[in-house]
Every structure is written in structure tokens, then in C-alpha cells.
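INFO  loader      accepted 1 record
INFO  loader      residues=97
INFO  predictor   begin
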Amino acid sequence: MSVTPRELEELVAWARAGPRRITVKFKGYRFMVAIGRFVEALDASGRRVPWQAAFGSRPPHDVLSSLPIERITVEERGSAETFTSIGELLKKAGVRR
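INFO  predictor   done
INFO  writer      dumping C-alpha cells
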């Protein structure tokens, strides 16, 4: 399922409004994407790494659209919810119906 740049902007706004932290783990890939106040790349231990080192010149919406997702975790006020697809997350955030 593809994610447009506009949908990603709305997802970041939803995460900021929460406040929420979204972590996307990909199948067979050692880096993750975190969405909170910003969109950033994380290594396997959860430390920030430069976007270029993790995903090269690919923009965040392209990374979310093209890599196979293992799980998505949304942390909000001490609780966590898990999703298996970006479509489920966009529905939860009210970005896509």
C-alpha cells in the first residue's frame, strides 16, 4: 500500500497532537522509521541514525510504501498498540477511510 507525502504529513500531525510515537519495523531490514515530532531513522537498538545511512536518498513516504512491514507500534501515554499494515495505521489516525 502506498503512502503519499500528504498522508505522511497528516500522520506526523496526528502523532504530534497525541503525543504519540510511531515505530515502523521492516521485515529483513536492520533500520526502522520513527514518527513523533519528526520522521527519523533508528537502528535495531532504537538509536537515531542519519537518514542517508539508513535509507539513502529515498524519501520517508517512499520507504513506508515500498519496504515490507513487520509491525507498527503506536505508543501513547504509557500504552502501546500494534498494527501489521500501514493502511491500518492510517485508518486509526483518521488519515484514510
